[in-house]
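Sorry to interrupt, but I need a hand with the structure work. Please put the record directly below this note.
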Amino acid sequence: MLGIAKQIAAVVLVTALVPQVHAQDAADGQKLFQQRCGACHQIDSTRNGVGPHLQGVIGRASGSVEGFRYSPAMQGAGITWDAAQLDTFLTNPGGLVKGTRMTQRFAKAEERKAIIDFLATR
């Protein structure tokens, strides 16, 4: 009986920590975004730069930001951005969308996850 109580307590503890972990990932992601993405992409405004703004990117269709000149490849990609698609794209943009102008790659899974968690808050 005591073993079950310990297991339940462990599950409750882990469940309670999950929001804190995601919040930390988002905070780390904000720093990474500013360092590695911020030169080309805006997140705090809908102004486009070298790349399209990324406000509301989760759930958005690829190549759909008004006023941004996308590559023909991105215009025709037919992707709806979610965490899995963004992870694949950030790993190797040209591997997912051959002909994209995006060249920045993120080799570390934890960095991609942190950036994606941050983007999900915007």
